[in-house]
User: What shape does this take?
Amino acid sequence: MTATIKTVGIIGAGQMGNGIAHVCALAGFDVKLNDISPDRIKAGMATINGNMARQVSKKTISEDERKAALARIGPAEKIEDLGACDLVIESAVEKEEAKRKIFADLCPVLKPEAIVASNTSSISITRLASSTDRPERFIGIHFMNPVPLMELVELIRGIATDDATFDASKVFVTKLHKTIAVSEDFPAFIVNRILLPMINEAIYTLYEGVGNVEAIDTAMRLGAHHPMGPLELADFIGLDTCLSVMQVLHEGLADSKYRPCPLLVKYVEAGWLGRKTQRGFYDYRGDKPVPTR
Ligand SMILES: CC(=O)CC(=O)SCCNC(=O)CCNC(=O)[C@H](O)C(C)(C)COP(=O)(O)OP(=O)(O)OC[C@H]1O[C@@H](n2cnc3c(N)ncnc32)[C@H](O)[C@@H]1OP(=O)(O)O
Ligand SMILES: NC(=O)C1=CN([C@@H]2O[C@H](COP(=O)(O)OP(=O)(O)OC[C@H]3O[C@@H](n4cnc5c(N)ncnc54)[C@H](OP(=O)(O)O)[C@@H]3O)[C@@H](O)[C@H]2O)C=CC1
Assistant: This one.
């Protein structure tokens, strides 16, 4: 039987977590938003508020829909506050150890029938599931950034994911008005298996001096009709996330073609993680983005 999902918990109120909360609340789900600190939750809520206000001004949603959706989102300052959720989606940092620790804290407070999902960009769902008390009710639900605008969600079954969990996840994603692509559980799934090596290659192109930031992004925007240049997109995703995905591909597929570009490593080591830290391949601290190379 397919479980009915009414209340969704989200762990991590960053750019993906707040986007997931946004679309869940608009679709009528009650949402509990968790992060390491109350300030992070407040910042996530402020972003949702701003993005919904923009949707109202563009007339894609009404003021009443905005108010009703915001009223459905509540903070979960402690992990115990997620205890009544039917589904919890983990969307914290792309580090396996951090995710394992979150699941270890989360599972004991959940109802036995609750589904646990990860929004991981790359990490094995089977391996993450094995760190929980419910591998059969664990699944990958992978949203795309920016969540309110992107139409796709990847669904990834771990080796033990049961049919009821898969079916309930399909119903849930369909209610969000997103299209599903089912991926087997291999490193970085489908979108990032293809997209991140392209971004990494763009960074090599910069590293080897084939072109500067502006030339590379202009080339791919106008020459290949991509909505964003690859370096602009890397900054948008977050360079820490890009590096983590390349490391998972490199280790998981044991092929040197996935070697993360040393320049990507250097930016991450500098703490220049892209838009979220105001500096990456572009510097966002002024009126408009300025290339850093
Ligand atoms: C790493 C992973 O694990 C997986 C991933 O997600 S990989 C990343 C996948 N995402 C992409 O590849 C995104 C590529 N970029 C794009 O498709 C587009 O640039 C975009 C959709 C993000 C923005 O489109 P755009 O036309 O260039 O920008 P812009 O005109 O500023 O915005 C378009 C609309 O989006 C809205 N918008 C922009 N960012 C938004 C956000 N974060 N949240 C909500 N709305 C947003 C704007 O208000 C605007 O609304 P209107 O059209 O109603 O005016
Ligand atoms: N960025 C993208 O384009 C996409 C990312 N993803 C995936 O989504 C996940 C989140 O990425 P994204 O939103 O970009 O990252 P962000 O850095 O924007 O947000 C992550 C949030 O999680 C918080 N966090 C870290 N550890 C914990 C914890 N133990 N408990 C609760 N919250 C925690 C972080 O707090 P703090 O900053 O204080 O550490 C931060 O607020 C990652 O797994 C990523 O791979 C999936 C699709 C697209």
Summary: The radius of gyration is 19 Å. The chain has eleven helices and ten strands. The pocket of NDP (ligand 2) is lined by residues 11-17, 34-36, 40, 91-94, 98, 102, 119-121, 143, 145, 237-238, 241, 276 (CB under 6 Å). The domain at 7-184 is CATH 3.40.50.720 (Rossmann fold).
